[in-house]
Structures are given as C-alpha cells and as structure tokens.
Amino acid sequence: MTGSIASAFQQVPAIGRYRDCAEVTRQVKPLEPLYLFCRETLAQRAQAFLQGFPGAVSYAVKANSEARILATLQGSGVRHFDVASLAEVATVASCCPGAMLHFNNPVKPEEAIREAYLRFGVRSFALDELAELEKLWQCTAGDRDVVYSVRFKLDHAGAAYDFGSKFGTDAAGAVALLREIRRRGARPALAFHPGSQCTDPQMYARYIAAAAHISRAADVELALLNVGGGFAEAYCNSSAPLLGDYFAAIADSFQREAMQGVPLICEPGRAMVAGCVSLLTRVAHRRGDGQTLFLNDGVYGGLQEQSIVDIEFPVRVWREGQRVDGPFAPFHCFGPTCDPVDRLVKPLRLPVDIRCGDYIEFGLLGAYGSATATRFNGFHSTSYVDVEAGWQY
After folding, report:
1. Are 216 and 114 contained in the same domain?
2. Would you say residue 333 lies in a domain?
3. What Cα–Cα distance (Å) separates residue 117 from each residue in 110, 148, 195?
4. Which of 29, 152, 276, 325 registers the highest number of CB atoms within 10 A of its CB?
5. Residue 337 contacts residue 297 (beta carbons within 8 Å)
6. Per residue in 116-140, pLDDT tens?
7. What is the pTM of this model?
8. 55 and 29, same domain (yes or no)
C-alpha cells in the first residue's frame, strides 16, 4: 500500500522525446508539473542573436540553468555565459566545457571570487564600487589579465525590473573606478543593464552615449562594453519591439559614438529562452462554485513571476491529447500549496467545461519558470521532457 501511494505521487515522466504537447498528455499523462522543451525553437533564437547582434552573445544563466538549455546554446554557437554565483559557474563549466564565463554579479563573496578564478579559470568580473575592486584584486592576486567591468546606471523608466535600484554607480563613480583599474595595470571595461522587459530600443543608445562619455573622461581603452540584457518578450498583455530594432539602435549608436574598436557583448536571458519552453500543469480540483480551480503548480513553483510583475502567459487546455476549445469563462486559479497567496493574480479565460484531470499549458515559460521554483510544502516544479514541436506563438 505504502509503495503504491509513494509511486503515484512521485511519478517521473518517461525520459525521451515526444512529438508535441498532445502526445505528452495522451501518453505520459504526468501527475506533476512538466516543462516541455523544444530544442529547435531555442536553436533558432540563438541564431537570431548570433547573426543579428553586432558583437558577442553571452547567455544570462539566471533565466534558466537547465542542462539541456545550456548544451543547446553551446551547440548553437553561444560561447559566452553570464553567471551570478559560484553554483552557476560550476553548472556551466560542467555542461559547456571551454565556455567563457563572465561573473557579472557586481557583489560577490570573496570565497566565490577566489574559487571561480582559481578552479574554473574565470577572468571577467563585474563591480560597481571600490570595495568590490579591492576584493577582486586580492582574490585574483592582482592578475592584470582580469577584465574589470564597471557597471553604471542612468535614471530611466520603462522596464519591468529596475536593476539600478540595486546595482550600478553613477557616471562620476564609473570614471573614478576606470582610472583606478588603469592605474593598477588591469583591463577596464564598462557594463550596464537597461532593466528586464525594456521596450524602448533607444534606451540602449542613451547608455552607449553615456559609456562613450565615461570612457573618454577616464581616458581609458575599454576591454569591452557590455550592453546587458533587457530585450523584451511579447506576452499576452504586452508587445515587444523586434530584435532587429534593438540591434539597429545599438549598432547605430555604437558607430555614432566612435566606439567601433571596443568589443561589444550582450547578455540576453528572457529573450533567449522564454519561447522554447511551456509548462504543463494539471487541474487537481474544481470547486463547487464552478469558477475556482486548483492546479498542481502555482506561484511557489513555475508561475512565480506573474505575482511580481504584470505578465500574462498564453494558455491552452488539453484533455486526452486533444485541445479543448470554447466557449470560455474566467476562472480563479490557485496553486497546490496551503498558502492563500498561492494564487494567480488574474483570472484565466478557460473552457467552461474544464474539469479535474485536464491539463493547462502555459506558454513562454522558458525564462524564470523552473529557475525560480521552490519546494514549499513538498511540491516541486523542475521536470523536463523534449518535444519536437514547441509552443507556437
């Protein structure tokens, strides 16, 4: 009895490759949340960045550190990875041998800096104040081949996350840091981030103009200029410029500011991986009021971000391998935990006859889905399978 109960609640989907979500719901019938990963979608997105961006492309691992995603990116030609912790350093080093790692969290423990440098060969670090520069200098024994990327910020709005509230020095501080790095004989660089979901490509032009002013004021030759991520993804309640619009704005401003001799790099996260993964959840219960559903995943799992910023994921419903269509009605959806905040912020428009055992598939969950999931109350949201045909949007 105990064994059968345990196996029912710890079901692991069959490892393999499936044609699409319809086949997964018909054959696997997962009891736990399941991420459906399409390699071809990710490979195409990687090529869009590699061929369109006027510089090197460095994937922001924080968006999704799933091994199959990292391996697919490296196989597609991505050679640079932006890491924010020693754990991410180790993960990328294991999955992508030979990758160039950029430890771009501006504030890092000394132990993490030292091990990243000595054990994993990291030679590129970000900072935004003198105290971090001193740590880096001590932990790398004054290695003059290390690239010190000074992160600066500008006042602006129009992004889902304002990174400037946590990281970045002002222009004067950046000038002082660049001069100090030059004085020590190391390799100075500049970095910025316009904020997640930045929908104004001209914001990059403003930052590049500021970077040019800062580097001239400091009288240094930059080892690189990192324009960060921020490339927006289009969700149900938001639109996004074309990638080409961002690339053109960056290239034009780079040329206008006469910085062509400076190596350029970007670090997309969300815009790289959002579209290659969907999240398959299961309806565990429909209340007697007819308007409330309980799902096997929620804000403590793969749907956490929608409770932080205004994001509406596209959804579709499956039953025994078939799409379930309208008529539709709004449903209040709770996650599986005992916490009342485990609730989707906005109602979902779902088929009026949705029932227990049906599957709700959420699109665009490749970024900040499994990466931010917890194990609160013993629930988990981390399992992946491959599909040949991913979410079409």
Report:
1. yes
2. yes
3. 11, 13, 28
4. 276
5. no
6. 999 999 999 999 999 999 999 999 9
7. 0.93
8. no
